[in-house]
Amino acid sequence: MDYKITLDMLTDKSVSVVKQGYAVIDGTQYAVGEPHRCAYVNSEHGRAEIEAELPAEYAQAVLAVWGDAPTVVEGVEE
To answer: With contact defined as beta carbons under 8 Å apart, do 14 and 38 qualify?
Structure first.
């Protein structure tokens, strides 16, 4: 099975990642199951999760938008 990953709603503070499984049957691609969505925030913990859980090219794309430092402090409401 192949997977497609979509970076959705990417801002300097967060990103929503959608992962969808696909099967190719006789040259036609079919979605398998429901898409899985996971949100990450631009905190120290969220940045570590992104690097651990996403393929490198997706993690690098998110971190390029997020910059070099976290913009969210976990446990602190704005």
So the answer is: no
Contacts made by residues 2-6, CB under 8 angstroms, sequence distance 24+: 2/29, 5/54, 5/55, 5/58
Q: Which DSSP string corresponds to 24-37?
A: EETTEEEEEEEEEE
Phi, psi of 37 (to 5 degrees): -115, 135
What SS3 class is residue 48? helix
Q: How close are the terminal C-alpha atoms of the chain, in Å? A: 42
- Tell me phi and psi for residue 45, to 5 degrees: -65, -45
Instruction: Output the tens digit of pLDDT for each of the chain's 78 residues.
Output: 889 999 999 999 999 999 999 999 999 999 999 999 999 999 999 999 999 999 999 999 999 999 999 999 887 665
Distance, CA of 73 to CA of 66 (rounded, Å)? 14
